[in-house]
Amino acid sequence: MVRPRQQVEETIKAAILSGELKSGEMLPSEAELARQFNVSRGTLREALRVLASQHLIYKVPGARGGTFVQSVDYSALGDVVTDSVDNLLALGSIRFDEVTHMRELLEVPSVRLAAEHRSADDLAKLHEIVDRQKAASVDDPSIPELDRQFHTLIARASQNRVLASFVAALHHASEPVHYLDLSPEVGRETVKQHQAIVRAIADQDPDAGERAIVEHLTYLRHHISAHRAK
What's residue 37's pLDDT? Predict the structure, then answer.
């Protein structure tokens, strides 16, 4: 026999996954949902907590808040992976170097696929990001975000949404720019490496793209290791 809490979970989950409940749609109040399902408020809240842990719904506090349907697409997958990796790092269940190594393993095929499948719009956005990086000083607070956008956009240009979700999540967890000793020289060299990667993607040359990203990641690994060792 299905427990009342499980019935609530399965019914709401099915409505979200079928599209009956749309992304961003607000659910009825807890009182109304409890009445509809003929369960106690406590049972309902337990069901909502489980759905929230599955990243299917989220709560907004306050007078104008409520319970909303979470976006269920490849970006939601990235959010789940990001939260999981962050928690495992905080608990010490995985090491920082394991995260960075896996990110590096995924970024090589990411660049190769981007060189094959990138669109004109992808290329224009990559050029824009690199131009902004080139103009920024090393102490510009936008540098980490621009770096995240650069690597995430390449992954999206691969046209593999699962790969894009994992690259974005692992880049967020490792945040390589935060561990660099960002001197003007390191900043200039990093931008040059980004330009080489974009050039290979523009030329639709996967082999050149792989060489460029490997050179970039090797450079980052050396400088991050040196900085963390201080």
Answer: 94
In three-state secondary structure terms, 60 is strand
Quick one: which of 178, 190, 181 has its CA closest to 216? Answer: 190
Task: Map 144-178 to HEC letters.
Answer: HHHHHHHHHHHHHHCCCHHHHHHHHHHHHHHCHHH
Q: Is pLDDT at 179 greater than 80 in this prediction? A: no
Q: Which two tokens stand for residue 144?
A: 């980490």
**Is 65 strand, coil or helix?**
coil
Identify the pLDDT of residue 72.
63
Which stretch of 27-36, 150-159, 216-225 has the lowest confidence by average pLDDT?
A: 216-225
Of 69, 70, 100, residue with least CA distance to 85: 100
Annotate 85-127 with DSSP letters as a single string: HHHHHHHTSS-HHHHHHHHHHHHHHHHHHHHHH--HHHHHHHH
Whether the CB-CB separation of 211 and 166 falls below 8 Å is answered with no
Q: Binning pLDDT at 50, 70 and 90, where does residue 67 land?
A: very high
Give the residues across from 59 on adjacent strands.
67
Whole-angstrom distance, CA of residue 205 vs CA of residue 143: 27
